[in-house]
Amino acid sequence: MDRYQLGKLVDWAGTLVTRKRMQKVLYLLHAAGAPIDASFYLHLYGPYSSDVAQLTDQLVREGLLTETPVANAAGRQFEYSLPAGPRASLRGFEQSPTGKQRRAAFQPFKKQARDLLNRELSELEYASTIAYFMRQTRDWETALEKACQFKRLDAQCNAARSALALAKQVMEPTS
Q1: Structural domains counted in the chain
Q2: Are residues 125 and 161 in the same domain?
Q3: How far is Cα 48 from Cα 33, in angstroms, rounded to an integer?
């Protein structure tokens, strides 16, 4: 995971609502083959990367990302956006030879990222967990079963089936 990719994801989002959404979308893009160099492990809410969390904190400290706390039922969540200066720097970087290469490698995932950014957070959580187990087991039904055990979710419920369909869509886009 690097500054460009995280900045580009936030740019595509306009305002990226919640760190959890950021983690799940990045994991699903990673599972889809996006060139995201980050380690993910299974955490309470599904796949999580301390690399992503640390980079987010660093970009906020440096003023390259704006972090806005917003009250919610659980206390607060954070929203992320690109300030005007870093947005202009991102555009300028994309005009350089290296930036053009980086953009070309990440741009094919824009449509998928935007779709994921607009999904319900619970669906992203379940789908990313199914995708995590799929990468380990290489079998959709086993992945669904393990994810549902982990999330304490009935494998036959609508939420589980919807998440399975999303995970398949992400990981097998031509099927």
Answers
A1: 2
A2: yes
A3: 17
